[in-house]
Amino acid sequence: MAKTPHNHSSRRPQGRQIGYARVSTDEQATEAQEMELRSAGCETIVREHGSGASRARPALAKIVREIDAGDTLVVVRLDRLARSVSHLLDVIEDLTAKGAHFRSLSDPIDTTTPQGMFSLQVLGAVAQLERALNSERTKAGIKAARAKGRMPGNPGVRERRPDALAKMTAAQKAAYGARLQSSANQWLPIVRRMRPDHTWDDISRVLRQRGLDWTPERLRRAVKWIVSEGMADKSLLRKSPPRPAEDRLMTLVAGIHSSNPELTLREIANQLERLHERTPRGGTKWAPSSVKNLIDRAKRSGLLEAA
Known about the structure:
Layout: E1 17-23, H1 31-39, E2 44-49, H2 58-66, E3 72-75, H3 85-97, E4 101-104, H4 114-147, H5 155-158, H6 162-194, H7 200-209, H8 216-228, H9 245-259, H10 265-274, H11 288-300
Parallel strand pairs: 1-2, 1-3, 3-4
GO molecular function: DNA binding; DNA strand exchange activity
Keywords: DNA integration, DNA invertase, DNA recombination, DNA-binding
Family: Belongs to the site-specific recombinase resolvase family.
């Protein structure tokens, strides 16, 4: 992404100011927020319509996924970005991991300044205290209910009432979507590089080698949700074409190499052995030269960029 020239008279970091304007319904307009964001120096503004009670915000997730180091995400107020303090901290953590910043025009939160970082730390401490207090209140409530002979939990769910079950299902779906979005930066780029050339089983094994616990079915379901929310192209769900054994190994090695270009040939060979992959000749021990041959083939076929 293009960078704006650095202004030596400004304390702002070099990079773009990206505005995020959200309203809850299609009937509401973002114009008022956009005016404030443009006045604050935002040349790019991303708009989103979504309930404040939901973390499923594809436009916001796309910003966080594609933002560059040095860029700053700007909102008019904190409630336009996050539904809770924990959600806010999750988003800022993702931005920080990308080397990006966050700023709220109406609140003392600006991660480019010491004062803003201090305010953020205070918010984090408040969130931790809130979680501890909620846990204590929940335990006390359960204990009191049991002392009175009442069962803890939602009586509507226990009685299988349709309205209560529908609310529970909606809450579970929202929580599922929030979990996927919070971890997407770890696994989605690998899925994008390997699908649909590779099977879900192959990709899940590569992810497990990177310490991510995915089964093929859970991974396919997660990608299906991501696609349904407009956060990824539906081509990821296409059926993998049948491939000769050596072509399958080529795409597998290309996927491992592209997900971590710093790996040596020996390290890739070790990964293939841990995955219990057979060599092109059917052996169990991989030589670096065999890995190099597959990488060279992947480059000739266009699967990897030639150096």
